[in-house]
Amino acid sequence: MSPDGLALIGPLGLSAVRAVGWAPDSVGGLTLGADPIAYAMAYASMTTLRPVRAFTVRKEAKSHGAGKLIEGPFEPGDRVVVIEDTVTTGSSARTAAMAVRAAGGDVIGVLALVDREEGGREALVADGFDVVALATASEIIAAMDAGAASPQ
Fold first, then answer.
1. Total number of domains in the chain
2. What are the per-10-residue average pLDDT scores of the chain (152 residues)?
3. Which domain holds residue 98?
4. Predicted local distance difference test score (pLDDT) of residue 142
5. What is the CATH number of the domain that holds 105?
6. What's the CA gap between 34 and 57, in Å, rounded?
7. What is the DSSP letter of 151?
8. What was the pLDDT predicted at 68?
9. What is the pLDDT of residues 15-48, one digit of tens each?
10. Helix (H, G, I), strand (E, B), or coil: what is residue 133?
11. What is the DSSP letter of 54?
12. Residue 36 and residue 76: Cα distance in Å, rounded?
């Protein structure tokens, strides 16, 4: 949630989504992990030809007010990329995707910041979701090991 992190992740996430040919109307996922990533992507898209809107999926509908499960400018019919900070089991992304579908959205894919390589990606693919991860746990570990091995 730091300014540096948001400035980095917004354009990277947007670039990754567009590199695989996804053209979402909105991006979002289960609060709280997806929120800063989705908001950063929406902000980064503002100066592009195809801005995207960000939304949040609550873990449960509010018991007062409108009782909404999805907050923000999501609209029925939106083509959506579900956002996940880390994919472990895939359950958070699945929960968000089911909420989006129930609200009339079309889930075109799942974007994860990190795939922890613990079966979540495979579970989501088995459920019919395309998944893109910006990094895997093994890539991060390898980069850390390489940094530790290099002389300062």
1. 1
2. 95 97 98 97 96 95 75 97 97 97 97 98 97 97 87 64
3. 3-149
4. 94
5. 3.40.50.2020
6. 9
7. -
8. 85
9. 999 999 999 999 999 999 999 999 999 999 999 9
10. strand
11. E
12. 22
Write the CB contacts of 55 (distance below 8 Å, at least 6 apart in sequence).
Answer: 26, 27, 28, 38, 70, 71, 72, 73, 74
Cα–Cα distance measured from residue 131 to residue 33, given in angstroms and rounded to the nearest whole number: 17
Phi/psi-derived region of residue 69, left when phi > 0, alpha when psi is between -120 and 50, beta in every other case:
alpha
Helix (H, G, I), strand (E, B) or coil at 141: helix
Is residue 113 classed exposed, middle or buried when 0-12, 13-18 and 19+ CB atoms within 10 A define those classes?
A: buried
d(CA 46, CA 14): 11
Quote the pLDDT of residue 149: 78
Residues 6+ apart with CB under 8 A from 123: 89, 90, 94
Whole-model pTM? 0.93
What does the alpha-carbon distance between residue 117 and residue 133 come to, in Å, rounded to a whole number?
10
